[in-house]
Design brief:
Blueprint (H helix, E strand, L loop, with lengths): L11 H10 L3 E4 L3 E2 L3 H11 L4 E4 L2 E2 L10 E3 L5 H7 L7 H12 L7 H6 L1 H8 L4 E2 L8 E4 L21 E2 L2 E5 L13 E4 L2 E5 L2 E4 L6 H11 L4 E7 L3 H6 L10 H9 L4 E4 L6 E3 L4 E15 L13 E13 L5 E2 L9 H20 L3 E5 L9 E6 L6 H12 L8 E6 L7 H11 L6 E8 L12 E8 L20 H10 L17
Helix pairs in contact: 4-10
The structure holds flavin mononucleotide (FMN).
């Protein structure tokens, strides 16, 4: 099975050219302020499923013209997230299956099977990076007195925020003791960065992130940590940085797997790290082992402002860029925002991996409106009593990405888990509050969840809304109503002869 439907995108420009050919990029010519205005335009376009926005004339807080164009809404639709991964949206699941096969390979069953797996093997070989000496991203190099973050078009997204915020930084780090050239040890994560001045930033990695783990290890040795922050890169690298990959798999290697070409990297100019050679901009620097600064309050993906908290400070040692760089930005806010759209698409990618562990799961939905991970609806093919509870416990216990999911609703596979009406029907007809709720207390929870009684510690609720079987019930269970297929077919045939006013009702949909 080929792992890509689309040609490789070496850099952001290749990807934008592809999207432009699909009429999926809109140029915005009038001046638009980086302070709030850009967020408001982006927010409305994203909510309508609109195109990538390429702002030609962004202006800063003082009304000065930005030195480069700003691109937002890059991954504002599932179609563009899928394209960034190199596939059509309907093939996200197939890509997920291919990735699951790479993770848990089965024995080869014959020569045909072996040949069929060659594309996967080729893809695996593309995880090796290609080191180049004159990377495009180092066409312009600013050092020392020339370093000035205020020359980048950094957005201020929401009213009341304290300073401009880098919203799409790809933060590259490595653990102490590793070789700078050893790509396998690199971590790349997107952690927003508050601007503190011309050459200082705050690195806001949450405690469980890869970047935070590396920083703790450097700080334990009393050393500054080298950091490189790429802004704007090929879409596979950008999306790999958002995936919660296991610590043993580097995002750069994973990007090679999905981007159809070996990732091109180059040594940074002032720090011992490798950086994506085809990025638009790279900010290099050092994060202090001890110095912190209060970060926020900033608008977050939950739809609220975060509480102010201390995070480590980064001192910038160089800014490098392409000759004509593009600055990539976004906002985070109440869903839908770009992270929630990305989350939904990546969910489809993760489903085959989840099914490897629990094959009874037919489908899984993390509604974006519930901040993409706080609630999950799962459809299962139920075979034995208690199975819904096993699935809940499995999701919470086995899979780290579900430790923050505070509600899981399990339904049978006849329920459309993306239909709120279907799920509510299952909950209200197949669940009983005294029997079908599973309540856990004092479990790990998103520390951003201010509704939990303690920061980072809260409850979890599972609702078993499946049909009850065996020892689960002693009552005669309801049989769902259904029209017989032949009556349905006869009425379909009759419909065109009915009054024109009835035509829109043919499928029995809500009007
Ligand atoms: C636009 C955007 C902004 C994000 N901001 C943050 C952030 O400020 N802090 C954070 O810890 N994670 C943030 N994330 C989520 C992480 O990037 C994501 O969970 C990633 O997988 C972390 O990588 P890691 O597991 O290698 O640490 C953001 C994601 C996106 C798409």
């Amino acid at each position: 099975m080929p792992i890509r439907d689309l040609p490789p995108f070496r850099n952001l420009r290749d990807f934008l050219a592809h999207l432009s050919a699909q009429q999926d990029v809109a140029r915005v010519a009038p001046p638009v302020s980086l302070v709030h205005e850009m967020t408001e335009i982006h927010r409305r376009v994203l909510a309508g499923g609109g195109p990538v926005l390429h702002f030609d004339h962004a202006t800063d807080a003082a009304g000065r013209a930005a030195t480069m164009p700003v691109v937002v809404n890059l991954f504002g639709t599932t179609r563009r997230v899928a394209a960034g991964l190199g596939v059509y949206p309907e093939r996200l699941c197939a890509l997920g299956e291919a990735l699951a096969a790479l993770r848990g390979p089965q024995p080869v069953t014959g020569i045909g099977d072996a040949v069929g797996r060659l594309p996967l093997l080729r893809a695996a070989l593309r995880t090796r990076t290609h080191r180049i000496s004159q990377p495009p991203v180092q066409s312009e190099i600013r050092l020392r007195g020339d370093v000035d973050l205020s020359r980048l078009p950094i957005q201020t997204c929401w009213p009341g925020e304290p300073a401009p915020l880098i919203t799409w930084p790809l933060v590259v780090t490595r653990p102490p003791g590793s070789q700078p050239s050893d790509i396998a040890t690199l971590n790349v994560g997107v952690y927003r960065m508050q601007v503190l001045g011309r050459d200082r930033l705050i690195a806001r990695w949450l405690a469980h992130r890869g970047g935070a783990a590396h920083h703790r290890a450097w700080a334990a040795q009393g050393k500054e940590m080298p950091v490189a922050v790429a802004i704007g890169a090929d879409p596979a690298t950008m999306l790999a940085s958002v995936l919660p990959l296991p610590e043993t798999l580097s995002e750069m290697s994973f990007a090679g797997l999905i981007r159809g070409e070996r990732p091109r990297v180059a040594p940074a100019v002032t720090v011992p790290l490798m950086v994506p050679a085809d990025a638009e901009i790279v900010i290099e620097g050092w994060v202090s082992p001890t110095e912190t600064a209060p970060e926020g309050p900033y608008g977050d993906h939950t739809g609220y402002y975060n509480q102010v908290e201390e995070f480590p400070v980064m001192r910038v040692s160089a800014i490098t860029m392409r000759p004509d760089p593009l600055y990539v930005s976004t906002f985070t806010g109440r869903p839908p925002d770009e992270p929630s759209v990305i989350g939904e698409a990546l969910n489809a990618l993760a489903l085959p991996l989840i099914r490897q562990q629990m094959p009874e799961i037919c489908d899984l939905h993390l509604p974006p409106a519930a901040c993409s991970h706080r609630l999950a609806v799962v459809a299962i093919r139920k075979r034995y009593p208690g199975q819904a509870r096993r699935v809940m416990a499995g999701l919470w216990g086995m899979l780290p990405q579900f430790s923050y999911t505070k509600g899981i609703v399990v339904v049978d596979d006849d329920i459309d888990i993306r239909s709120g009406a279907d799920v509510l029907w299952a909950v209200s007809t197949r669940a009983d509050p005294s029997r079908d709720l599973m309540l856990l207390e004092r479990t790990p929870i998103d520390y951003l969840d201010f509704a939990s009684p303690e920061p980072g510690l809260g409850g979890k609720l599972g609702i078993d809304a499946t049909n009850k079987i065996g020892a689960e019930t002693h009552r005669e269970w309801g049989r769902p109503l259904a029209m017989s297929a032949d009556v349905s077919a006869r009425v379909d045939a009759l419909w065109p002869r009915l009054d024109a006013a009835l035509r829109g009702f043919q499928k029995g949909e809500e009007q």
